[in-house]
Write a structure and sequence with these properties.
- This protein has one domain.
- The protein is an alpha/beta fold.
- It is built from four helices and seven strands, in the order βββαβααβββα.
- GO terms for molecular function: oxidoreductase activity.
Amino acid sequence: MAKVPTRQLGKNGPQVSALGYGSMTLSLGNRASDEERFKVFDRAIELGCTFFDTANIYGDSEELLGKYFKTYPEQRKKVFIATKFGEVISPDWKTFSVRGDAEYVHQASERS
C-alpha cells in the first residue's frame, strides 16, 4: 500500500505527511475504548500519516493523544502534533465565544 506523501512545514520546518489525521471524530459522541482508539492512531502512523491535528474543544482528543504517547512512547518521535484553541463553548454547547487574551492563551497551552 502506498504511503502518504510528505511536505515540509514552512521554510525550515519538519517533514510531515501531506494529509493530517484529525482526532475530533475519535473524541466526540459515543467513544470506543482507549485501546480501540489507539489502534486508529497506530494504523494512521503505519500508513505514513505523521501530522496529527487536535484542539481543546475536540472532546478528550488532547488527553487521548497524551495517553497514547505515554503508553507507546516510540510513536511520539514519528508524529508532529498541531493543536488549536481560542473557541470557548458553554457546557450545554449553546454559547460560543472566542478568546485570544494572554491569560487564556497561557491556560490553553498549559492544559494542552
